[in-house]
Amino acid sequence: MAAQVNGVAKKPAAPRAPVRKPGAGKATHSAAKSVHQKASPVQNKAASVAGGENTTSAYAIMASRIANRVAEMAESITLKMLALQNRMLRSSAELSKVEGADEKIIKEHASQSAELSRIIALICAEKARQGA
């Protein structure tokens, strides 16, 4: 007996072969490839965190501002250190002119001035390396 829809007899449908959808049972090659690509490591971590290489994000702007402030602070400290070294060299020269000064104190003062000179040289070399 045929089913009726809106008063009209409907013929039963002929049996069909099952429709096979691609990737229904197993992962396809392209899906496996995209999973592999998603799992690959990020080459430039800073750029990815900052929003990409061509994008200026809030993070990149803030990092740049902090770097500029640190550079300004280092420069001012280097100037204060140069002034201190100048004073130390002058006082060493004055100490060496005094006849009753202890030789041990004069040598210690000169070695402290030399140590300060090495610290200033390291700071200047690092600034030059960074291209500041």
Q: Can you summarize this structure?
A:
With 132 residues, the protein is mainly alpha-helical. It is built from 4 helices and 2 strands. Residues 7-25 have a biased composition (Low complexity).
Estimate percent helicity. 55-70%
Number of helical elements: 4
Mean pLDDT, as a whole number?
A: 76
Low-confidence segments: none
Terminal Cα span? 92 Å
Helix/strand order: EEHHHH
Q: Which strand order do you get reading across the main beta sheet?
A: 1-2
Number of beta-strand segments: 2
Radius of gyration: 39 Å
Shape: rod-shaped
Largest sheet: 2 strands, antiparallel
Query: How much of the residues is beta strand, in percent?
Result: under 5%
Structural class: mainly alpha
Structural write-up:
- With 132 residues, the protein is mainly alpha-helical.
- Helix content is 63%, strand content 5%.
- It has 4 helices and 2 strands; from the N terminus they run ββαααα.
- Strands 1-2 form a two-stranded antiparallel sheet.
- A hairpin with a 2-residue loop joins strand 1 and strand 2 (8-10).
- Helix 3 runs antiparallel to helix 4 (103-130).
- The chain starts with a strand and ends with a helix.
- The model has no long low-confidence stretch (mean pLDDT 76).
